[in-house]
Design brief:
This protein is mostly beta strands. It is built from five helices and 14 strands. The chain has helices at residues 16-19, 71-79, 92-97, 108-112, 173-176, and strands at residues 23-24, 26-31, 37-42, 45-50, 53-60, 81-86, 116-117, 126-127, 132-143, 149-161, 166-167, 170-171, 179-181, 187-189. A seven-stranded antiparallel beta sheet has the order 3-2-6-9-10-5-4, with helices on one face. Strand 13 (179-181) and strand 14 (187-189) form a beta hairpin.
Length: 202
């Protein structure tokens, strides 16, 4: 089949997110201008560069009690900082709990039963239980086409790794089993790896 996104697929549910999958989940923690902590998961998330390390997340939609997108984007605009926490399989229920639409100023760490840990470089806390956390300074916010689509790009200025996930000098994803988002209400988890050496160049 073929369809134009502007016309819709004709299927019961939009397949776009199922096509572009799996997607890593950026569990973004921020502080608002008054110092209140916020935590929310974003599946439009990925690394963009490694020297310096850069990551992005995109927020879609608007929250009724915010003038600019959702709490996370408003907080990054106000403070210029965020932390991208990595979601392990063991944290799946807490991640899902933090996705609830709650009033502005609500602490999702407390709502989801998570521990706030003090960051080293930025003011926003990170999830102590996360296998990794990337402290970020805002590089740019890009307003994308559409009424409430915003892409946030940050430079990673500090990295936390769980010692339990480091084996033989490798940050071992099979130990913490990163969660990824598929289409619809579906998720996947990394359990098995295979290697493919790169072809030799000229």
């Amino acid at each position: 089949m073929f369809y134009l996104p502007k016309d819709g697929s004709g299927l019961p549910h939009d397949p776009f997110k199922a096509i572009v999958s799996p997607r890593p989940i950026g569990w973004i923690s921020t502080l608002d201008a008054d110092g209140n902590a916020n935590l929310a998961p974003y599946s439009f998330f990925n690394a963009l560069a490694d020297n310096p390390p850069m990551v992005m997340f995109s927020s879609t939609g608007k929250k009724g009690d915010q003038e600019y997108g959702k709490d996370t984007v408003a907080n990054v605009r106000a403070t210029g900082e965020f932390v991208a926490n990595i979601v392990s399989y063991d944290l799946r229920e807490a991640m899902n709990a933090s996705a609830a639409v709650l009033p502005k100023g609500t602490d999702e760490f407390e709502h989801a039963g998570l521990t706030k840990a003090a960051s080293e470089v930025v003011a926003a806390p990170y999830v102590a239980e996360a296998p990794a956390a990337l402290e970020c300074k805002l590089f740019q916010i890009i307003d994308l086409p559409g009424p409430h689509n915003h892409m946030v790009i940050g430079e990673v200025v500090g990295i936390h790794l769980s010692d339990a996930a480091i084996h033989d000098g490798i940050f071992d994803v099979t130990q913490y089993k990163p969660l990824s988002r598929l289409g619809y209400m579906d998720y996947d988890v990394t359990k098995k790896l295979f290697k493919m050496p790169r072809p030799q160049g000229m």
